[in-house]
Amino acid sequence: MKIVNIEDISALDSSSIVTVGMFDGVHQGHRHLIAKLLSLAAERTLRPVVVTFDRHPRLVMDAQAPLSLLSTYEERMSLLEGCGVDTVALVRFTRETAALSACSFARQYLCHHLRMRTLLLGYDNMFGSRQHDDFEQLPQLAEACGFDICRDDAVLMDGVEVSSTKVRRALQQGDLRRANAMLGTPYSLSGRVVHGRHVGTGLGFPTANIQPEDSHKMLPGAGVYALRASVGGRDYVAMANLGDQPTFHSEHPVLEVHLLDFDGDLYGSEVRVTFLEKLRDIRQFESPEALRQQLERDRADVARMATGG
Question: What angle do CA 215, 70, 129 make, to 5 degrees?
Answer without folding.
Answer: 95
